[in-house]
UniProtKB/TrEMBL annotation, chain A:
It is found in: Mitochondrion inner membrane. GO terms for cellular component: mitochondrial inner membrane; proton-transporting ATP synthase complex. It comes from the Eukaryota. InterPro entries: ATP_synth_F1_ATPase_gsu (IPR035968), ATP_synth_F1_gsu (IPR000131), ATP_synth_F1_gsu_CS (IPR023632). One of its GO terms (molecular function) is proton-transporting ATP synthase activity, rotational mechanism. This is ATP synthase subunit gamma. F-type ATPases have 2 components, CF(1) - the catalytic core - and CF(0) - the membrane proton channel. CF(1) and CF(0) have multiple subunits. The lineage of its organism: Eukaryota, Fungi, Dikarya, Ascomycota, Pezizomycotina. It is a peripheral membrane protein. Coiled coil: none annotated. Its main location: mitochondrion. Keywords: ATP synthesis, CF(1), Hydrogen ion transport, Ion transport, Membrane, Mitochondrion, Mitochondrion inner membrane, Transport. Belongs to the ATPase gamma chain family.
From TrEMBL, chain B:
PANTHER family: ATP SYNTHASE EPSILON CHAIN, MITOCHONDRIAL, ATP SYNTHASE SUBUNIT EPSILON, MITOCHONDRIAL. GO terms for cellular component: mitochondrial inner membrane; proton-transporting ATP synthase complex. One of its GO terms (biological process) is proton motive force-driven mitochondrial ATP synthesis. InterPro entries: ATP_synth_F1_esu_mt, ATP_synth_F1_esu_sf_mt. Signal peptide: none annotated. GO terms for molecular function: proton-transporting ATP synthase activity, rotational mechanism. This is Mitochondrial ATP synthase epsilon chain domain-containing protein. SUPFAM superfamilies: Epsilon subunit of mitochondrial F1F0-ATP synthase (SSF48690). The lineage of its organism: Eukaryota, Fungi, Dikarya, Ascomycota, Pezizomycotina. It comes from the Eukaryota.
Amino acid sequence: MFSRAVRPALRAGGAAVARPAPANAAGFATLREIEGRLKSIKNIEKITNTMKIVASTRLTRAQKAMDDSRVYGQTSNTLFEQAETKPLEDKKTLLVIASSDKGLCGGIHSGLSKAARRYLASNPNTDVAILGEKAKAQLSRAAPENIVLSFANVCKDIPTFADAQAIADQIALLPEDYASVRIIYNSFVNAQAYEPVSIEAYSEEAITQSANISSYEVDDEALSSLREYALANNLFWAMAEGHACEISARRNAMENASKNAGEMINKFQILYNRQRQAAITGELVEIITGATASADM
Amino acid sequence: MESHVSANIELPNLRVECRNPYRFHPLQSNQISHPPFKMTAAWKAAGLTYNRYLAIAARTVRRSLKDGPRLASERRGQMDLRFAKWENGKQGEVRSLAQANNEALAQAAEK
């Protein structure tokens, strides 16, 4: 009787000497730790959820702006399609990368810079102008020698045509005479998929040398205006579409983050409850064994 | 609309050409030494790029709107980009794009 009653107490006592002291302390600490982590994950979930809601509300506007801007770009490119304009082979191309300043939107920026690096690998004789800090940070490590211009503050809100015009003007001021300006941007395939594609704005020479230009009556002086205007149109299109992609990608990323945070919260909640229960049970066992032991005496 | 705007922009030029300012009437094209509808417009002679010309025209239209639509549309004309030139893999000084474009414009006008 005595031996049986004392055995758990002994075991508990022995354990108290050997293990529970750290385990108990550690158990208590992990409970605190788990609680802290649970709290921080809950905060993160709140933040990502809010960002998702913000992105969702901005998404409809961004998509509308994208649809509007597409008309600009496509209308202005109809001429070059009809005239079958081809870029000149022998001269330099300027690569414009339409990324943006802000992250937390999945892999769309790195997708762009990957596409740019692929292009640079096959055409090393290319200059690069970058819109947005993210692609700048990535490409300034990969190909710093090719960069000639970088723009910041891009695509904070829905890009305006004034932005596109100012950028086009600055690009026109570059000393080099480019055969064509190739703009890489994320095209909006659907709400889940974005694909880095490129559109081209040609130089005057390329336009005059295009196969089918004779079907148009073009004033020579109008040609340089046309070139600048086509570049601004294409930039506007690329920026608006890239912006819509970014917002959409941010919405998705934040949705996933909230979902993951929710899963983690569940897991930690269960762990926390189990630990708490274990601690309570342990304390009860100690109390009861203590009580039985003292009742026996 | 374009002919109208270019005629307006050509106004200062024409005043110089017409000795007697009272005989000049901007809408009578027979008094203008070169036709206003030709592409060699004054904006080009002044060193403006086509984009710049469009931006100024758009700004003029925006400013002449009523208050409600004007406020809504003026947001579309805002531009506060910053940019930096790169040389040999090094980023240069970060500057305001609007300022740099204005300077380039002033330089082009001097030529």
